[in-house]
Write a structure and sequence with these properties.
The longest helix has 22 residues. The protein is built from 16 helices and 15 strands. Helix content is 47%, strand content 23%. Strand 4 and strand 5 form a beta hairpin. The protein folds into two domains: 152 residues, 2-Layer Sandwich (Alpha-Beta Plaits); 256 residues, TIM Barrel (Alpha-Beta Barrel), CATH 3.20.20.450. The chain has an eight-stranded mixed barrel, surrounded by five helices. Strands 1, 2, 3, 4, 5 and 6 form a six-stranded mixed β-sheet that branches. With 427 residues, it is an alpha/beta fold. Helix 2 runs antiparallel to helix 3, helix 8 packs parallel to helix 10 and helix 8 packs parallel to helix 16. Bound molecules: ligand C2E and magnesium ion (2 copies).
Length: 427
């Protein structure tokens, strides 16, 4: 929330006062992380006690002449006069504030202990570095928001790039939201093949952003931003819908005795969201693939760790619908092999990094692959190698018991028409 008009005026006049005198000044914007939880759980009065204790502590450890402005329910700002060496002095100050004031359980009235942690964003101006007071406020607030987003970090020093980056991220997120609303995300299909004969066993649907001017963008151009904006689940659903639409066409192009697997990716954000999980199940129910096309959903290892995310529920629902589940990029996360025992996992996709190292002199990753093959066979889990690029890799994988693969050796991801053509050519 922007400071209200009064608070903004107080802040501006405080900053201008120092600047007019040609004195270096720092602005430290502080956010009390527990304010809203405390207010909701214990009421406004106790939450205000928390703020009062925080204000007192921050002022007590700040240099003389520091003024304090309450800029929001859970926020305040310190305007701090600095001496001639602002950088060294400022670092020492925020370090002191962070040691003394940012984590402090305080006894509230009625014996309820209140926890106080403060996230601080710090910006400064001096003779050599003279951003306007408005810019200083924006920078300190952006830094404060960054500090809030990193629970382990109590203060963040503003940098001029921060504003540019925030503006860029904001614009990209708005563009992505618009693109999602306009249905600009589609699926390209990469063949999954039988490594022995090169026959197509199925396809993986991979997200592509088809922009209004016809550019086709791969996930490296948008996935991180989609994640940061909390939009990945919506993206997943749009790509899955495109994959399910493609299933009908692929079905017409396949040989009748050639069953196909259609594999699609789901994100942690989808798994963690109750409503998006329901959306996914509804989508699958409404667009049942034709007989002969089997669905598989790929999820990354990180999502396996936490049983509270709704994963177990989702896996049960998928099993009821005969949808297979694969662990994607296996070997890049930290899930233990034992977790595979407990979960209804049908397939593992071995990360490309293992396949790339097959010919390296250090063979430890090959031994890991051998172990994985043994465990996979024991548990009845299908293994698919990702990123197969050379004939040598293909042969090694086959000789070591991995029979399925995906990679540029066979095909890049294809648009639907090309995927249909490739199927017809091999049928
Ligand atoms: P992934 O699911 O592991 O997909 C395989 C990626 O490896 C694809 O990149 C594919 O184009 C690339 N690839 C395939 N064969 C080779 C090869 O031989 N060599 C090399 N160097 N690369 C190969 P892409 O399409 O850029 O997708 C990147 C990642 O983005 C995917 O990795 C997946 O994690 C994510 N992604 C794609 N679509 C979706 C989606 O709909 N939802 C979510 N949540 N994530 C998606
Ligand atoms: Mg995948
Ligand atoms: Mg993968």
């Amino acid at each position: 929330m922007q400071p209200g008009n009064d608070a903004m005026e107080q802040l501006l006049s405080g900053l201008e006062g120092h600047r007019n005198l040609g004195k270096p000044v720092a602005l430290i914007c502080c956010s009390f992380r527990q304010f809203h939880a405390c207010e909701t759980l214990h009421g406004r009065a106790l939450a205000e006690e928390l703020i009062a204790a925080g204000q007192h502590c921050l002022l007590e450890h700040s240099p003389e002449g520091t003024s304090l402005v309450r800029t929001g329910p859970a926020e305040l700002a310190l305007v701090v006069p600095l001496s001639t060496d602002p950088c060294g002095e400022l670092t020492a100050l925020v370090q002191r504030l962070s040691n003394r004031c940012t984590v402090a359980p305080t006894p509230g009235t009625g014996g309820t202990p209140l926890l106080l942690t403060v996230a601080m964003g710090v910006a400064h101006a001096n003779a050599a570095h003279r951003p306007s007071s408005h810019t200083l406020i924006t920078q300190a607030r952006l830094a404060m928001h960054q500090a809030c987003g990193r629970p382990g970090s109590q203060w963040v020093l503003a940098s001029p790039q921060m504003q540019q980056q925030a503006e860029q991220l904001y614009r990209q997120q708005a563009e992505l939201m618009l693109a999602l609303q306009q249905g600009q995300f589609s699926a390209h299909l990469q063949p999954i093949v039988d490594l022995q004969h090169g026959r197509t066993l199925g396809f993986e649907a991979l997200a592509r952003w088809i922009t209004a001017d016809g550019k086709v963008l791969s996930p490296k151009h948008f996935l991180n931003q989609t994640q940061a904006a909390g939009l990945t689940a919506v993206l997943d659903l749009q790509v899955i819908a495109a994959g399910l639409r493609a299933a009908t066409h692929l079905n017409q192009a396949r040989r009748s005795d050639q069953p196909l697997l259609l594999s699609m990716n789901i994100s942690a954000q989808l798994i963690e969201s109750d409503c998006r999980r329901l959306d996914l199940l509804a989508l699958i129910d409404d667009h049942q693939p034709p007989d002969g096309i089997e669905l598989q959903l790929e999820l990354v290892e990180e999502t396996l760790g936490n049983a509270e995310t709704g994963l177990d529920d989702l896996l049960r629902e998928l099993t009821d619908r005969h949808v297979l589940v694969a662990i994607d990029d296996f070997g890049t996360g930290y899930s233990s092999l034992s977790r595979l025992h407990d979960l209804a996992i049908n397939a593992i996709k071995v990360d490309r990094s293992f396949v790339q190292r097959i010919n390296a002199t250090n063979k430890s990753s090959n031994q890991l692959l051998d172990t994985l093959v043994a465990v996979g066979h024991d548990l009845g889990i299908t293994l698919t190698a990702e990123g197969v690029e050379t004939e040598q890799q293909r042969r090694w994988l086959l000789e070591h018991g991995i029979e399925r693969g995906q990679g540029y050796l066979f095909s890049r991801p294809l648009c639907l028409d090309a995927a249909i053509a490739s199927l017809s050519a091999t049928s």
